[in-house]
Fold this protein.
Amino acid sequence: MAALIKHLSDTLSTEQLLFFRNVAGLVVLLPLVIRHGRQLLHTDCWHWHLMRGLVGVSAMYCYFWALAHMPLTEAFLVKLSSPLFMPLLAWIWLSEPAGRRSLVALTVGFAGVALILRPGSDSEFTMVALIGLLGALLAALAKVTIRRMSATEPSARIVFYFGIIASLVSTPGAVLNWQPVSNHQWGLILLLGIIASAGQLALTKAYRLAPTGKVGVYAYSAVIYGALMGWLIWDEIPRWTTWAGAGLIITAGVINLRQSKSTKTA
């Protein structure tokens, strides 16, 4: 999905891509609506769906902006700092235990983020990366909100209402920043919706089945895909600071995973 967004960002606005991603995703989900009918639409958690939708679409905008202005691997890594926030947010909000290892992981992970941000080297790059980091924090909050709803709300309903809210919220920006769309781009936009919806359904299901901190760790495998696609498609060669930062962030993820296992055993 990220590679498609980066490719389309050359000619389409971030606001358009945000709108297309959400509307295309909603179209892909229509068979679910037909299959489940009114049962899918009924909810007593409107406030949580609204919060998840607004926070989620804000996080998505920050991420899309970072993808358009950063190398793919570095944009991935900034976004993948999201799991670092999640144990802390889950501890504050959901009272899920966050032990000493979580604090160590937080410190190690943000040391890695600092290497990727390269403060003082390029103020424009640092500002874009900070927007991406804000998106990571918002994404963590959105995922913890999913965890909060998961006791009563099925995955399909959470994803469906997110698609509705995100599409409505992103419409004004898309209209104001509209750029012409070619036939080839329409095909890529449809593919974007299919891929994004499949990933979101899988992720939402995962957060219903396991503790927040444990699930988030597996997102780090995306670094491998990001580095490979960035090299093959855009000829991007990550700096040594990027690789060092990636190592620290992945180490933090492993620490979080060990913390989740220890908590479960206890």
